[in-house]
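sanity check this chain:
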Amino acid sequence: MSKLKSEENEILEAFESSRLKRVKNADKEIAEHRRVAEETFKKDARINIRLSSRDLRALQARALKEGIPYRTLVSSVLHKFVDGQLVDKAAHK
C-alpha cells in the first residue's frame, strides 16, 4: 500500500467504515468546484523565455519521467511557485 498522509488515512478510514455521507446538492457543489478549477488552470496568457539548452534538456527529461509534456511541467512549476507551494531551500537557511 502507498504511504498516505494522516489526513488521507482518516479519509480512507471514514470511507471504508461508511461514515462518509453524500452532500445535499452535491451536483451543484461539484459543478462549482469544476468551474473554479477551470478558472484556476485557464491558460490565457503566453510568454516566451530563453534558457540554456542544458536546462531545457533537463526539463524535457524530467517531464518525460513524469509522463507529461515539458511545457505542462514548466507551467505547473511556475504555478506552484507563485502559489507558495514551492520554496527556495537556500533562502530558508
In short: The two ends are 35 Å apart (CA to CA).
